[in-house]
Each structure stands twice: as C-alpha cells, then as structure tokens.
Amino acid sequence: MKQAIVLTSFGALDDGSRERCLDALAEDFRAEFPEAVIVQAFTSVFIRNALEKRGIHVDSLEDALLRLAEEDVTHVLVQPTYMTPGEEFEKKVLETVPKYASRYEKLLVGEPAFAEASDYTQNLIALCRSIFVPRDAELVLLGHGSPHRHNPVYEQLQAEIDAQQLPIHVGVLESTDTPDFSMVLARLQQKHVRAVLLAPLLLTSGMHVARDLAGDGDGSWKTRLEQAGLSVTPILEGLGESPIFRQIYIEKARRALGES
C-alpha cells in the first residue's frame, strides 16, 4: 500500500502567509503521517495562475489526483483545509473526487474544520488558545461567508459562543451573507463594548484581511467600527499560523483514516 494525503486549500497568494499557514500545515502532516506522501492542491484557478506567473507551481486537485495515480499511490485522503463545508468544498472537492475513485483502491475525503456539532466546542477551545484577548476588549471574528447562499456555520458558531458566555462575536466579510456588519455592531453596542480585537476566522491572510478586515478604506470593518466609536486592534495573521489550530485538521485526517 502506498498512501498519500492531499491537503486541499482555496490557496494563498501572499508568500509569507502561504508559508506560515499552508506550508506549515503540510509539515505538521509530514511529522504526523510519516508513512504518507503529503502534497498540496489549490482549488482557486486565479491563485494557481498568478503563482505560476511567478514561477511557483501548485497542482489543482484534479492534477494532484492524476499525478498520484501515475506514481502508483493506492490509498488517498483528500483533506480540505476550509473552515466550513460550503460551496467551495461542495463544488471543488465533493464533485471532483468521485471522478478519480476508479484509479485508487481507496479514495477518501476528510471534513472541513466546522462540519459536525461536536466541532464547535472543540474548535472554540483552539480559537481561544490561539488568540489572546485583553481583559478590557472583546473579540470579533470575521469569516469569509458565501456570496451565493447563506452559510449557517457562522450563526451556529455564535450560538455555541453565546451558550458558553464568551466575549466573542462572529461576522462574515461577504456583504450578502450574515451575520453582517450591522448585526455584529448591534451586539457590541448592546453590550456597551468600547474596545475590540478584530481577527480573521480564516486559515490564511491575504486581500480579505488586508483590505476588508483591517484596511484604511471606508468599507473595511476596522474603519466602520472606529466610525461607530470603538477602539479597534486588528490581527493580520491567519489561524493557520497557530500550531494549536492546525491540529484541528490533523484530527480530522485521523478520524477519516480511522473510520475508513
């Protein structure tokens, strides 16, 4: 048996974030699964093409699965690094993988970070251990959200946060999804919050973090919260920079391999 794990991400253009988050995750997997070939695949065509122009090649998921079959790999786990089982996971992973099942003895798909009810409590522990929040501030976590349909994961995460009475508020960057800016601001104002730590609920940092979360433009959450009278301290690092948070994906892979 020759085994491989394909760490499947949307991708990251920023070299530093890619190295500190996605490459670091791959190294964690190599240490945890030394018997397996660990490779990365990016599902974003735009990011792959942009990196290719800079001389950096990253396989698509399709190319990775074709190449591994040619290298006589027999057992493959496709482990997504997405936060939620949203559109990218469904269309770029779940619709792709079955097309290559006949090339392997076993081809499995792992879960994104927030996929089951038990994930919310466990992942909250990882989040709280990864981000230090001063006692006089509250934490605002910004996920991506979905541009085409509502993603319920963020509201479910907020419900778990509220059940545990934690000073954390969850929003999404996509203006068409919820919880949106007005909903988060209303929560903060209801609690008379004066200072917030603004952090990405994203594995990597990039344009969304630099522009939409922490930018100086009128549309950024930082600017809008400051205009509402709050003191804002942005965090620019993706959660993939935390070894504690990266462990979530190792546990997902263990579970997928153990249940197969």
Plain-language structure description:
The radius of gyration is 19 Å and the shape is elongated. The protein is of the alpha/beta class and 260 residues long. It has ten helices and eight strands. It is 43% helix and 17% strand. A four-stranded parallel β-sheet has the order 2-1-3-4, sandwiched between helices. A four-stranded parallel β-sheet has the order 6-5-7-8. The model has no long low-confidence stretch (mean pLDDT 95).
Largest sheet: 4 strands, parallel
| Cα shape | elongated
Give the distance, in angstroms, between the N- and C-terminal Cα atoms: 14 Å
CATH hierarchy class name of the largest domain: Alpha Beta
Strand content: 15-25%
Number of domains: 2
Sequence of secondary-structure elements: EHEHHEHEHEHEHEHHEH
Briefly note the structural class of the backbone: alpha/beta
**CATH architecture descriptor text of the largest domain:** 3-Layer(aba) Sandwich
Sheet with the most strands: spatial strand order:
2-1-3-4
Total number of beta strands: 8
Helical residue percent? 40-55%
CATH topology of the largest domain: Rossmann fold
Low-confidence stretches: none
Mean model confidence by pLDDT: 95
Radius of gyration: 19 Å
Annotation field: number of helices: 10
Task: Describe the structure using short key phrases.
260 residues; alpha/beta; Rossmann fold; 2 domains; four-stranded parallel beta sheet; 10 helices; 8 strands; elongated; lyase; cobalt
